[in-house]
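fyi for ur records
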Amino acid sequence: MFGYGSLINIVSAQKSFKRELFQSDLIPVSIKGYEKVWNSIETINFDGQDTNGVFLNLQKNENAITNGVVVKITDEELELLKLREKNYSCITIDSSNAIGQDLDDNIIAFMTTKEEKIAKVGDSSCVIPAKYIDILTNAFASYDDEFVVEYKKCLADYPFELKEGTYTFSDPIQNKFAKQGVKK
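which gave:
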């Protein structure tokens, strides 16, 4: 599986796995033909108010290369990840698109494809949770400089306002697998 958002962070990723994950399980990789974009809408709750939170998404772009991590997962782990990534579609990326790793299997990734879950630039009802940015940047200490420099490109220009504060996912099942953890 290809993780490109909060799944690059071992602490965040661990919440969706029953087994103990190690940083070595998150293998840095670049993928040809996709880019990270800020347009995936999830309903989140800030201080008792539901709002449209915007998170990273993948978008096809034959001229692009984006980085993230691959994690070997079981079928059961995929099912748990689907609960975490509930508004994303499960896509398959050909293993030949991986740069820097020789992969035996094609790559599963999560990508928002439903039009109603794609944020449009200028939509003032959408915000990017600042704590989500913290999850991403807190992972940087675990990766080499080349990975971090490349990854920071998606953090250079936010198309929506950043919102400070603590958020939860409004869907309780999604919140369990993304915030609380499967082991609890």
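The CA atoms of residues 176 and 182 lie 7 Å apart. thats all i got for now
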